[in-house]
Structure formats: structure tokens, C-alpha cells
Amino acid sequence: MSDYRTLDISAWTQVGEGGNGTVYVNPSKADVILKVNKAGINTLAFVTNEYKVSKAVEGLGIQTPKMYEIVRVGDGYATLSQLIRNKKSLSRICEAEPARTEEMAQVLCENGKKLFSTRCNTELFPSRKEQLMRALDKVQFIGKKNRQIIATFARTIPNCKTCIHGDFNTGNLILSDGRYYWIDLDRFGYGDPMFDIGHLFQICNVYAPMKRVQEIFHMQEEQLLLFWKAFAKAYTGEEDPAAFNRLAGKFACLDMVTRYELQTPSLPERIFFAVHIRRLVKSYFQ
């Protein structure tokens, strides 16, 4: 028997859904939000890590909702955390006001640069480069030649010790009363900021045509592409950041490989990643 108390989900009302899970509120708990991860990542080990990471990130002085408690929900585990009132993610702002898409790209850029300049606790948080190198030994359906190409590039990545989010996207930076908060921190770590930027590139370019991705981020393909273009311009200060785009494409490939270390992909996901990794290698490494 665990010491974690059990919540009755029927007493809670769903208010949001993302790629990793669902969020609920309860009228009797005005300042609390319940996050229930999807099957496979609602285990005690995963949720405990999510809880500890959020606590530790808060300790670094990074603005994030306060984490309160781990609870049981059905056969899995979930978290109770601070409810940020009147909040909107950058995704929701772009959905409601498409004319502000480029502005929100600049906001993500500015907040990302602040995050990337924060020294990380390297004893507590994982190195994304080390995770990548371990994943290269696990990844399936990739030929020997492409594996070697990726590994050769991976070894050139500098060993940065600054913070990276791990799931850097428009849904994980929220605005409330003039303040921005980072959320969904279970993949937080340290390393080259391009790991985060490659993840964003993947969403806005590689995944942009996919209906499910458009639903999650509340933007159509054209708007996701516009967001990336504005982000790249803001980040580099260049009108045509072609070299930056090529580098981001390489890190998008690394992001797919690293999934094998962060979360075991299903068979359909492994096939999907294998196809796109080959395409990214062909497009950006050769």
C-alpha cells in the first residue's frame, strides 16, 4: 500500500489536454490543478520524477507553478499543483489572436534565452548530450551509416551546463497577469540550447502538417511555419537565418533519437521515428 491519497476523478472537471495528459480543476479547491498523465507515463516513477523536477526548477529561481502533492487517480498517479489563474499559453494566444503570432515567437525567444542563460544543477539534472549518446545505442530501424553520421555530429556538441526545458514549445510557456511561467518540466536538464530549439523546429516544421499536432498546439500548418520563421529571426537577429535552420534540423533529428532514452516508443512510433530520422539525415546532414 502506498501513502499517497486517492482522488475521485469524477469530482473534477477537465479544462485542458496536451500531448502528455489531461488537466482538471475542482470548485472546492480554488487554487489547485490536477494533472493526469496519459497511460504509460502515469507511473509512480514518472510522476515522482516530474514532482521532484518541478520542485528543483523552482529552486533555481525559474518561474514555474508550485508543485504540491502526488496523488493516486485510478490505477495511476497524478500531481496537484498551483492553479495559475487567467492564464493562456502562447499556443492559445496565437489561436485567439493570429496577428500576434510573430510577437509570441519573440516572447518565446526572449524567455528561452533567459532560461538558456541560467546555470543548471548538474548533479541533480541530467545531461541531454549523455542521454542522446545512450539513446543512440537503443534506437532501432536506423542503418549503420546513418547511426554513424548522427554519432559523429553528436560528439561535436559542446558540453554546456545551462538549463534547457526538454519540451520547448508554445504550449509550455504560459502568461498570467503579465508574468510568464514554464510548465511540463519532466524532461528538464542541461546542455546546448539547440536541443530545445531543435525540438521546436521539429514541431513547427516536421510535424506541422499533422492534424493531431495542430490540435495540440491550436495552430494550422501555415501558422506553425510562420511561428518558426519569426522565432528564428528573433533568435539570430538575421533576416534569412539559413545556417541556423540547418543546425536546428540536425537537432530535430537528435530529438527523435533521444526519445528512446526519455520514453520507450511503441512499435508504430519507432517506425514513424525511423522514417523521419532518415529524412532529416538526408536533408540536414548531407
Structure description:
This protein is α+β, with helices and mostly antiparallel strands and 286 residues long. It has 2 domains: 9-82, 2-Layer Sandwich (Phosphorylase Kinase, domain 1), CATH 3.30.200.20; 88-284, Aminoglycoside 3'-phosphotransferase, Chain: A, domain 2, CATH 3.90.1200.10. Helices cover 47% and strands 17% of the residues. The protein has 10 helices and 10 strands. The strands form 3 sheets. A 5-stranded antiparallel β-sheet has the order 1-2-3-5-4, covered by helices on one side. It has a 3-stranded antiparallel β-sheet with strand order 6-8-9. A two-stranded antiparallel sheet has the order 7-10. Strand 8 (173-176) and strand 9 form a beta hairpin. The longest helix has 21 residues, at 242-262. The N and C termini lie far apart (55 Å).
CATH topology of the largest domain: Aminoglycoside 3'-phosphotransferase, Chain: A, domain 2
Q: Strands of the largest sheet, in order across it? A: 1-2-3-5-4
Element pattern in H and E: EEEHEEEHHHHEEEEHHHHH
Structural class: alpha+beta
* Percent in strands: 15-25%
Whole-number radius of gyration?
A: 19 Å
CATH architecture of the largest domain: Alpha-Beta Complex
How much helix, percentage-wise, in residues?
40-55%
Mean pLDDT: 94
SS summary, helix count? 10
- Unreliable segments of 5+ consecutive residues: none
Give the gist of this structure.
With about 290 residues, the protein is α+β, with helices and mostly antiparallel strands.
Task: Summarize the topology.
Layout: E1 13-17, E2 21-26, E3 29-37, H1 44-59, E4 67-73, E5 76-82, E6 88-89, H2 90-96, H3 101-116, H4 128-136, H5 144-154, E7 163-164, E8 173-176, E9 179-182, E10 189-190, H6 194-206, H7 211-217, H8 221-236, H9 242-262, H10 267-284
Antiparallel strand pairs: 1-2, 2-3, 3-5, 4-5, 6-8, 7-10, 8-9
